[in-house]
Hints:
50% helix
Amino acid sequence: xxxxxxxxxxxxxxxxxxxxxxxxxxxxxxxxxxxxxxxxxxxxxxxxxxxxxxxxxxxxxxxxxxxxxxxxxxxxxxxxxxxxxxxxxxxxxxxxxxxxxxxxxxxxxxxxxxxxxxxxxxxxxxxxxxxxxxxxxxxxxxxxxxxxxxxxxxxxxxxxxxxxxxxxxxxxxxxxxxxxxxxxxxxxxxxxxxxxxxxxxxxxxxxxxxxxx
Length: 213
């Protein structure tokens, strides 16, 4: 993670006086740190990076992703970037840059965390960011955690019964022995098929676009 990860605890004022409120630069720095920390715990993104679904520079793309989110808050009106708006942005980047459709509600959860942290850091409250940072350090000390995932079949495979799908998940857990991180994210790699014009019976041409999950 290229973002500088360090504690945001304020330093005591010289001479033991009252601690000054954090500067705008410190607030922005801490918010940027919080974004990187939240993204580091998003199983869908971690899985995409581990498998290089965004190409050989997937890890660098994750760092760029954090910066793009920060820029979004800096360039858009505060009332514009709410949880729904940010979720749409997150899912679009996952689709465009990592070729992954996130089918669970994790995008909304990540967006909600980031919006909440934006509010806290602007108020000068860095406590939660510090806790997240310490948790990140603990994970890194253990070598990080791999993410288990449940393979999602395409629509043509929807007839697979639930029992066989459950067996598959159990086999993956037994073989990998990875540390579980809650419910496995349900992911589908985005289709790269080109849009094909469709001609109806009257000779008119219809363009069928890709359906966003």
